[in-house]
Design goal:
The protein is α+β, with helices and mostly antiparallel strands and 146 residues long. The protein is 23% helix and 20% strand. It has three helices and four strands. It has helices at 57-70, 80-90, 112-120, and strands spanning 46-54, 101-106, 130-132, 135-145. It has a four-stranded antiparallel sheet with strand order 2-1-4-3, sandwiched between helices. The radius of gyration is 17 Å and the shape is globular.
Length: 146
Amino acid sequence: MGKDSKPKDSGGKGKGKQASSGGDDNASKGKGKGGKAADGLGTCTYVKARHILCEKQGKINEAYKKLQDGWLSNGDKVPPAEFAKLAQEYSECPSGKKGGDLGWFPRGKMAGPFQEVAFNTPVGATSAPFKSTHGYHVILAEGRKN
């Protein structure tokens, strides 16, 4: 009711924070309720994901190019087993030995941009490379649940 017409006005606790309303696309302060309910991506409580972590941008781009050349450029989804092989080859995270498997994790466990990308990447899809405080990542979302 009024969800589309006045998403900020009906909250009642604005107290003059209108200047920050321009950054809604990033939803960095959304804490999981950032208005993405229409597609279901931003509403789940847990996500299951694999990732590749590299300290250098060039290395993550090389791994991502292999994903593009093999699957993404054709519009195909990357099979988890193939993503796992690339994670074992490229990832500098200890999870790389397990094919980048992070298992199920709840909102609030992962920091900043990693959580945002993990919880907003559709199941079966692979994220574009992105930077976090730990380095450069590519995520494969494998599942979501509440």
